[in-house]
Amino acid sequence: MSFLNLKADRSKYPQRDADGKMQIDLDSHKFVKLWQGPNHPGVTGNMSVELTLAGDEIVEAKTHVGYLHRGFEKLIERRLFIQGMQTSIRMCVAEPDSNEYVYCTAIEELSNVEIPEMAKWIRTLILEMARLQSLVRVVPGQAGTFGLGLGVQWGVYMRELILDRFEELTGGRVYHMFMTPGGVRGLLPDGFKTRMEENLKEIESFAHRIDDLIFNNVVFKKRAVDTAVIDPSWIDNYGITGFVARSAGFNRDVRKSFPYLIYDQLDFEPKVMEYSDIYNRAKVRWFDILTTVDLIRQIMRKMPEKGDFKAQTPNVLHWTAPKGETYVRSESSRGEYGMYVVTDGTNKPRRVNLRGVSYTHAICVLEDLLVGVNIADVAAVMVSLQTCPPEIER
Question: What is the per-residue pLDDT for 41?
Fold first, then answer.
């Protein structure tokens, strides 16, 4: 680790007032600079944060990306529509099914393809399974950033339960590609709903243990409460969505505001709180676990037993789409997830642009939010925003 003395920058240094905010003689204080990441548990991927410190308190933070060099959007623009599937899902490894949905739906809208009702139910089920496996990993993982490793182990176990069901349904544990332009690849296997219900009961049990382990833990409270508070005025200025916005009192959920698939047939209400610190951002996602468990049960109870699962589509090797453009949005576990696609009448997209949550959360918000935070809490702040760096280097 290398240290470098920096000249004080009055405009960026957060002085403290009589209420406890930091007051330092800027002319005499020595600053140091160090890097957190890219190889660090507080970074959910290859990303680094350049930190400027006064003692152990951060006075400036700058996000650095460029370690992935993937160029997903350009790769998709040079491939047939069907070939773009395996590239799109890698724009967020932690929750690839959101990419499947927005990409497939964009191609369908531009090609005037209407998917069958059964396909809508199965797609919704897959999206909620993806949300659940993401949430049960990251909520206990928030405890891990404060050294509470038991929560991390529980999270890995719960996620494996859902990955078992993904493997049964799709053949894959992480990348699934069960959605395809025109619908899905098949129906649910025999006995799938029974096995899923067993997993949901187990996850519910562990969710309540997590409540005791984390949210009633005095150490977690001391570290998380009043740490990295997001001002409500940031929400619209930065374009913050999802659980980060809901923890600050803004009811932002695409499933409710712009219903898609069969969400308008489901009964749910996303949790909203009034104060967005690390504690409440974790608590909102904990409530989301319970909401998602209930949604999966509703879907399995209401969905038809049989039906067409794929529409008639052109030959995938010769599929062309007329000139047009569309933007498709969905609600991932992290917030609004969208894709803008332009076609020019050929067999490849003319332009693809992803609207991922992480660009806002991991650059714009994180750089301001870290100012004034203790260096020991950097990893916790980053996980509380639930970033996915491949969305940035897209």
Answer: 60
pTM exceeds 0.70, yes or no: yes
In this prediction, residue 26 carries a pLDDT of: 46
CA atoms within 13 A on the CB side of 320: 6
Helix, strand or coil, per DSSP, at residue 279: helix
Rounded Cα distance, 130 and 133, in Å: 5
Helix, strand or coil, per DSSP, at residue 70: coil
Residue ranges in the chain whose pLDDT is less than 50: 1-16, 19-28
Reduce the DSSP state of residue 228 to 3 states and report it. Answer: coil
How is residue 164 written in tokens? 């078992």
Identify the pLDDT of residue 99. 92
Q: Is 318 exposed, middle or buried (0-12, 13-18, 19+ CB in 10 A)?
A: exposed
Strand order in the sheet with 324-331: 324-331, 336-343, 349-355
Q: In angstroms, rounded to a whole number, what is the distance separating the alpha carbons of residues 134 and 174? A: 11
**Quick check: 54 and 373 in contact, CB under 8 A?**
no
Which domains, from first to last, does the chain contain?
113-319 (1.10.645.10)
Interval 214-240: pLDDT, tens: 999 999 999 999 999 999 999 999 999
The one-letter code for the residue type at 64 is: H
pLDDT at 13: 41
pLDDT of residue 44: 63
Question: Using an 8 Å Cβ cutoff, are 235 and 365 in contact?
Answer: no
For residue 26, what are the CA distances in angstroms to 33, 288, 363? 16, 44, 26
Give residue for tokens 């609600």: 331
Element (H, E) at 34: strand 32-36
